[in-house]
Amino acid sequence: MKALRVMLVDFKELNPLIKSKESSDDKLGLMLDLILADFNGDTPPTDFRFETFPNPNCLLQGALAMTLDASCIMHARNQLNYQDDGVAFEDFGKDPRLGPLAQKHLQNYLRLTDNLKRMINAGNCFSEYGSEYSWVNRIIR
Q1: What are phi and psi of 93, to 5 degrees?
Q2: Residue 68 burial (C-beta neighbours within 10 Å; 0-12, 13-18, 19+)
Q3: Residue 29 counted as domain residue
Q4: What distance in Å separates the CA atoms of residue 134 and residue 128, rounded to the nearest whole number?
Q5: C-alpha to C-alpha distance for 44 and 123, rounded to whole angstroms
Q6: H/E element holding 45?
Q7: Which domain holds residue 13?
Q8: Cβ 36 vs Cβ 111: under 8 Å
Q9: DSSP string over 48-111
């Protein structure tokens, strides 16, 4: 969870406008749990835990995308624009770059997931299933 917070640069000291962390530890933990469940449920199914995951960057990219996406949803839902005496205000507005950042990290996660699942699938095929031609190698000449 600490690595995800570092990637989000979500520290109280660095958020002077809200004077707190934007994402709670519970929220970040949930995002990590969800992305691990997503990875394990994809074909071929796996049963990795955080401690045994072969590429932690894959999980972090996915959790980062999910966290940014959740922030986009929250900010879009709570955005309020108003005007007073010719001055326009935007309450709870966020930088429009959050959505594209979430998409970028989602694409990174999908690419890393695809590579890992291919590697796992290939490893399972070559190590568990033999060829019908394997008897040729056993013929004594």
Answers
A1: -75, 150
A2: buried
A3: yes
A4: 13
A5: 11
A6: none
A7: 2-129
A8: no
A9: --GGG-S-HHHHHHHHHHHHHHHHHHHHHHH-EEEEETTEEEEES---TTHHHHHHHHHHHHHH
Place of tokens 């699938």: 121
User: Is 137 contained in some domain?
Assistant: no
Per-residue model confidence as pLDDT tens digits over 20-71: 898 999 999 999 999 999 999 998 899 999 999 999 999 999 999 999 998 8
pLDDT of residue 122: 81
Nearest to 107 by CA among 73, 58, 50, 47: 58
List the Cα angle 22/70/10 in 5-degree steps. Answer: 25
What's the domain count of the chain? 1
- What tokens does 121 get? 């699938």
If you average pLDDT over residues 76-96, what whole number do you get? 72
Q: What are phi and psi of 44, to 5 degrees?
A: -75, 140
Tokens of 89: 């205000």
> Which tokens in the block code for residue 38?
């997503």
87 forms beta bridges with 84
Is position 10 within any domain?
A: yes
Is pTM beyond 0.90 here?
no
